[in-house]
Each structure stands twice: as structure tokens, then as C-alpha cells.
Amino acid sequence: MAVTLVTGVGLALSIGMAAAQDIRFFQIGTGPTGETGFAFGGQVANAISNPPGSRDCDKGGSCGVPGMVAVAKSTGGSLANVEAIEAGRLDAALVQSDIAYWAYHGTGVYKGRGAARKLRAIAMLYPESLHLAVRRDARIRSVRDLKGKRVSFGGKDSVELLHGRMLLAAFGLPESQVRLSPLSPEAAADAMAAGQLDAMLVIDAYPAPILTELAQRTGIELIALGGPEIDKLRARHPFLSASAIPAGAYGGAAVEVMTLDVGVMLVTGANQPDELIYGVTRALWHPTTQALLSGSRPRGRLFRLSATELERTGIQLHGGASAYYFDAGVIR
Questions:
Q1: Residue of 244, 278, 283, 303 with fewest CB within 10 Å of its CB?
Q2: Whole-prediction pTM value?
Q3: DSSP letters along 193-209, please?
Q4: Which domain holds residue 17?
Q5: Which residues have C-beta within 8 Å of that of residue 127, sequence separation ≥ 6?
Q6: Each residue of 248-298: pLDDT tens digit?
Q7: ∠ at Cα 61 (58, 62), nearest 5°?
């Protein structure tokens, strides 16, 4: 991880003067409204906001950036968010760590498309899990059983499609042998419930709202993602980590299901002012914010500040964020 240090004392003083300034809006790109990222992004936006006239933090008021109102914006997800950050249409965004790494370095799916050199990290937030959900009557027990089945890996240019193709390749199953349908998560869930689709891939923190709702409409199971094929996939893609979805998460198996996790980061653009991102980072790691985010969902409990988590971002930290982490003693 490349780190750029900026003196933090001056930044902190600048932030303290912001209360006297005009209100500033700060747009955070999240993901589709039915996914965890949108809700989590909304909580982040509330936590880092501190509109003019708010009560002081030590008096039970807002502990965010003075004079700022952050707004969570629904988007198409990580790929769309990277593009919007590069174009300056968003101030910050939630992006999966492997997508951010490939975009910043111009590798992986971004090879030949040019690197997203303006992309900068603020923090690692929480992990999302790959859910390969199938109808109970579809007779699918492994990725290889998707051969000839009706499957949705999300819409065109979705992260589900990207990771779905990685799974097929890992198990040696040609994409041409799967009946892929480019559907949004909502449309795929409706098709599953109607018996028109056999399997769908959802990448979200568990319990994924869309699968929780689908499990109430029809019987579903999760396919385990483990074994030597997955071990080799992880070796090629180190941003994927082994994980497990708890037993009965969606009313199915009585045992946990092995799967893969990928981290979700808060990123911004290199052109954002250091003092602003210093304040955003400080508000993000305020004890009140940590308590809110860590208690919001099961995976939120993994929201923690450490040098190891910062290393996992894999891209350069924004100067304002690195200054805060230096002042807080997290990095040297």
C-alpha cells in the first residue's frame, strides 16, 4: 500500500473553522437500493454529517464534519462508482477492494482500459460474501452443476457477472455451457420465485436482504464455494478470502456454508481537499460512529481500525486520510 503523509495538525485546525462556513454537500455512491451497501452507506453519510446549527458532539449531537451534509446515492455498484469518482461526479463511494485494486493499477478487468489514477482509499469498511443461491428443486450441488441451467450473474457490467465468470473458470465450466440471463438482482429473484431461473449470484453482506425475501417466496439453498478449485482461485485473486455463511441464514441448511468474501472500501478522488478528507476520516472512526456501524449488521462487527485493514485496501490512501491515521498512531 502506498501512503502519502500530510501534516495533520493544520488539517485539524482547518476543520475546526468549518462551522463558520457555508454548508457543503458530500455525495457518497453506494449500490442498488436493495443491497446492504446502500443502507450502510446511508449510515456512513449520517455519521460524517454535521449541518450548521447541530448540537456539539460532546453534548450528544453530531460528530461529523462541521458544516457538511453527506448524502448516500444509489448507484449501479463498484464499477459504476469507480467511473463516477474518476469523472468527479461523486465525492466518495463504496467499492469492492478487488475492483479498486484492478482499477487503480490498470490490471484485471481494467487491463487495456487505462488505470483509474485518481482513485484514493479512505478506509476498509466490511466484507461482502458471494452467495450462489439455487432453487431446491434445481438439482444443483456444485458450480459444475450449473451446466445447462438457467443462471443469472447479474446485469451487464455488474460485479456479479465478473465474479460469476471467475467461478466458472475456476471449475473449468465454459460460459457457453450455461444459460446466462443478464438480470438485475430484483428481476433474478422474481424469476427464481416463478421457477423461470435455477440459480443466481448475489454479492452482499449476509443476511442479504434480497435473498431473505426470496427465501420467504420459494425454497432456496446456497452452494458451497470451497475445495481445491476455490483454493487456486484465491491464490490468483488474493482479495478473495475464505469465509462461511452461518447455518440457517436463509432458512436452508442446518450447517454453515463455505464461501468467499471480498472487502468493501470507502474511496474518494485525489482532487478532494486534504482537510475535508481528514475530517471525513476522523468522523468515520469516532467512537460514536464505530458503535453505530459495528452494531448495524452482523458483518458490521468487522468494522475496525488497524494497520492491517489499511494494507488490505491495496491502493494509495488519500493524503487527508493518511494524515489522520498518522496522527492517530495507526501508521508510521
A1: 244
A2: 0.85
A3: HTTS-SEEEEEESSSPH
A4: 8-127+263-327
A5: 205, 241, 243, 261, 262, 263, 264, 299, 302
A6: 888 766 689 999 999 999 999 999 999 999 999 999 999 888 888 876 665
A7: 105
